[in-house]
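Limitations
The structure tokens in this dataset are predictions for the assembled complex, not deposited experimental models. Users should treat interface geometry with appropriate caution, especially where small molecules or nucleic acid strands are included. An illustrative entry is reproduced here so readers can see what is and is not provided.
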Amino acid sequence: MSEHAISFTLNGHLHEGRAEARTSLADHLRQAAGHCGVHLGCEHGACGACTVMVDGKAVRACLMLAVQAQGCAVRTVEGLAASDGTLHRVQQVLREEHALQCGFCTPGIAMTLAALVEGETRPDAQALEQAIGGHLCRCTGYQGLRRAAHRLAGDAP
Amino acid sequence: MKPAPFDYARPASLDEAARLLAEAGGGASVIAGGQTLMPLLNLRMSQPFLLVDLGAIPELRAVERHTGGIRVGAMAVQNELLGHPLVRSDLPLLARALGHVGHHQTRSRGTIGGSIAFAEPAAECPAVALALDARVQLHSVRGMRQVAMADFLHGPYATACAFDEIVTALVFPDPPAGERVEVFFEVARRPGDFALTGLAGELHLDGGTIVAARLAWFAMGHTALRAREAEAALVGAALDEIEPEAIAALALAGTAPFDDKAASAAYRETVARRMFARTLRETCAGRAMA
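Predicted assembly:
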């Protein structure tokens, strides 16, 4: 079993550490980097709770090895709000539309939406809704999320 | 959940990757996007002692036109292919099908080569490749070879790819002459779920007459399956004289729908028959009016 030195940018800061080959990016972010906003639900890619951004794209952190993040730019929900605490536009809209309840699925959904609204092509509401389809929410339901998606499509730069 | 222990290598060249696989003697797994392999590792359904990551070999990502067709590198990422100008213009069926592969978040890393190599019977990409007569390029220490998609798929998760071979590209030959029309449907409980049944294909038209038909089922047998009898019946037919129900019956002839927890074989067959007829009717009607 190989162990690897890894370094990547985590929310704008250099992160250096070591990881067993089999350690998922999600486990590494939680256990080695202390970023527990990366939630683990199913650990096989179905629920979406662990979604983070890697090089600007929304990916499942449970379906990627920590060692594969070498040299990448990783962003988690901890890196969404500004340093003064001002919420990211996605977080603000999720809050205003009551698009969360227990909050377990929320970090992943926020990262998916943030990756799309910050991406190169301006997403329409349908694209945002479809992307939310990659997440499971088991308490507050999806209507608030749909409203948030529609607002973000209008808000997108 | 933790995978069983393994070593990890990220070779910078195809030759190095092939050498690692050959030396591992069958105990290694290739990891492309990992969107299917990682769940299998996490659930310990797969326990290789070495992972060979193809992520550091840039030439495997290239999508390019060359004489006689379009070569799509195995490591081309599904979301990138979805927006790729050459795919949108020349492989519209692939673009259409890719929108149904997994979720946005898995398509960020999932690759077309991984999807082909895994040969999931309900997957879209193998059916598209089979319908479009694609060839699979395989590389090993013994050299490079090409296998027609029809010979590549051996069964569920079983292909012609030997343990020491790497799927490096898919080559889609130029389509038959004539205006082409996509034929596609997929039935799933929710977008992103495994297909309960689906069809991917193209009709090629000269005026109002079908001059070529290439249709492949997915989730209707042990592999993606060509609907050869239906194709033969469609060739030479005028769009306004096709009987969709009769063609649907022919299309189902070679299928072997299966029972699983998502649907019974009878359900798959009923839905497939009706969806096939409906899709063919709407495709022909839309084209006859155009």
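Some entries come with short summary sentences. For this one: The two ends of chain B are 55 Å apart (CA to CA).
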